[in-house]
Amino acid sequence: MHPSEWKKQMASARALAGRKMVFFTNALTKLVPVAAPGLGTMGVTEDWILLVDPETITGWTTEQAAAVLLHEIAHPLRDHAGRCRTMCANAELFNHASDREINDDLVAAKLDLPGEPLLPSQIGAPNGRTAEEYYRTELELLKKQPPPPKKGKGKDKGEPQPGQGQSGGDPSVEPGKEDAKGKGQGQGQGKDGKDGQPGSGDSDEKKDWSDGDKKPGPGWCGSAAGRKLKHEPDGKSKDGKAIGRSPLEVQNIRRQVAEAIKEQAAKNKGNVPGGWQRWADEILKPPKIRWENELARALRGTMATVKGNCDYSRSRPSRRQGAIGWGPGKPIISGMVSPKPKVLIIGDTSGSMGTEELSMIVRESNGILQAVGSSADFAACDAKLHVLRKCKSWKQIAQSLVGGGGTDFRPPFVEALKMRPKPDIIVFITDGMGPAPETPPPGIHTIWVIVNGYGKAPCEWGKHIIISTKPAETA
């Protein structure tokens, strides 16, 4: 088969999938398709490498290929791999559950999934539940079944445990007892080119993706679903370059999709499945800190006029000036002003800040931008200052998160004192693990936002706010 055949089918399927669910259009271009001969289906890795069996995809109709594509992209968007790890779940069983969480929406949208897709009704569960709920339901059903016969010296080896879907591993194993090696959907060494373009290292060599009598398919979708495939690539090309998406890129993709879902739902609620609307609400949930109030309180101690408070200034003439007139001999009546604070946001981008912590930087920074009502300066710092720029949106903040080295909180404060005009407020978002200046910057109010750290501030000066998955605490 000529490589162009499956790539043409892939392009057609992606275009159709984007028309079926418009809010996925951008995310679909972020997948990196790589040929995986012998896979027998599609699969997706945690770093967004889409593994495609050329023979299988060309054998499907475009409608079927589009439906499978929408199924696969839902796994990394919903972070099924991370949720599987959080539960210490059996990889095979959780992949079953995550498939059910996805497929009920696809079937409701009348999409043509090939074969026999896993659905909630097959385990007596209602639609619209989470993968975690389906996991517990199926686990209870398996516990009620008699154990399989033990292997002996006789000829009979016993029958395998029944299950919905095909995958590696033993679903009768208790959660957390099985190594999540599982199966996946793809192999390839393709180099990452432009968004949505197939990798250039596709191979025609067929591999055996099966694990005994089990083959990739329903319930075995790759590491993005929590169940890694047998020959799943490591995410790097032959020259060592990454071909997939980084965790930070994935977080940004999720947020962009969530915004597209909210926009689509505002136009026509009937076009967006309820499960995806709830997911978007969770991704776009507001910051834990009410920054408008927090910034106003901080400014009251550092400025004579703050956002939300008014004062008189001759820099803005009064509306009543016209009654008196303009020109020589006419007094100037002061007008009411409400200056906006100059805020510097500093994001800790050291190696100790994981994906969740970096996401909190984006979320809280977005709240600050909304509270300020305009732009704010943003600095990214690990052991040294990497970025200092003016940002107007969370997307610019996300693009500025550069670092990954050691930790030193002092360099951005040195730079802040050189800025003209100096910031009125510094908001430092960090896990708190690093050295800070011994004294506060003169004339600048500092707020330390400690995210998912040990609850210990790096210094005694400044205001300290601790946030995590729990409600914010202030000190």
Explain what the structure shows.
A hairpin with a 5-residue loop joins strand 11 (463-467) and strand 12. It contains 14 helices and twelve strands. Mean pLDDT is 80; it is low at 154-194, 302-309 and 470-475. By secondary structure, the protein is α/β, with parallel strands linked by helices. Helix 4 packs across helix 6 (91-108) and helix 8 packs across helix 9. It starts with a helix and ends with a strand. The chain has a seven-stranded mixed β-sheet with strand order 8-7-6-9-10-11-12, sandwiched between helices. A three-stranded mixed β-sheet has the order 1-3-2. The chain has a two-stranded antiparallel sheet with strand order 4-5. The chain has helices at 3-20, 25-28, 54-59, 62-77, 80-87, 91-108, 131-144, 247-267, 274-283, 291-300, 321-324, 355-372, 394-399, 410-418; strands at residues 32-35, 42-44, 49-52, 311-317, 334-337, 343-348, 376-381, 385-391, 425-430, 445-451, 463-467, 473-474. 34% of the residues lie in helices and 13% in strands. It has three domains: 3-254, no CATH class; 304-340, no CATH class; 343-474, 3-Layer(aba) Sandwich (Rossmann fold).
Question: What secondary-structure arrangement, pairings included, does this model have?
Answer:
Elements: H1 3-20, H2 25-28, E1 32-35, E2 42-44, E3 49-52, H3 54-59, H4 62-77, H5 80-87, H6 91-108, H7 131-144, H8 247-267, H9 274-283, H10 291-300, E4 311-317, H11 321-324, E5 334-337, E6 343-348, H12 355-372, E7 376-381, E8 385-391, H13 394-399, H14 410-418, E9 425-430, E10 445-451, E11 463-467, E12 473-474
Parallel strand pairs: 1-3, 6-7, 6-9, 9-10, 10-11
Antiparallel strand pairs: 2-3, 4-5, 7-8, 11-12
